[in-house]
Amino acid sequence: MRVLLDQGFAVFGQKVSYAEFTGQVSALVVVHLAQRRSLWTWPVQLVSVSLLFVVYLSAHLGGTASRQVVIALITAYGWWSWTRRRDPVFGVVVRRGTTRERVAVVVAFVLGTSAFAPVLDALDASWAPWPDAAIFVGTVLAFALQGLGLVEFWLVWLAVDAIGVPLQLHSGLYFSALVYAVFTALVVRGWVGWNRAAKRAAAPAATAR
Questions:
Q1: Less packed terminus of the chain by CB within 10 Å, N or C?
Q2: pTM score, two decimals?
Q3: In this structure, what DSSP letter does residue 15 have?
């Protein structure tokens, strides 16, 4: 792992380690697989978080590094959940969240960020505790909602990307910033695809009533 972190290549004069490159490319593949609701989403995610944990720890972004550990745990749950909730026609069953669920997500994002940022600051675990905390909480929420099959997880990812691009740039992780920008386009596409899937899955139930 240390070799992957120390060795790399230059892009526009900026070093990109093999660990950062492989971890972020794997993360892009995860988004593509999630769009297709493939079970391969989860094992590829485990590869990505393992590499990015080391990358962000070396960049003194404790919150972003810590989230990789939490994501790994949620990934195990998501893998199990998607295996149990497959439909022969629709694949992984997805749905839109209720108003109560959406409000709960917003409240959890705000309270979680407000609680975690002071912890990062007190521990001197991050040079940018508030955006770092927001990315941590947003990512955890996004993966949790993805595991539950809620369409709204894509919107949480949009918020994470909006915070993540400038944070990565200021951290000198230029390739990661580029990947976050690409994420945005993939997330919009995923949002549209999952909405269509949710409508198709809901149609038989509406007809039955």
A1: C
A2: 0.74
A3: E
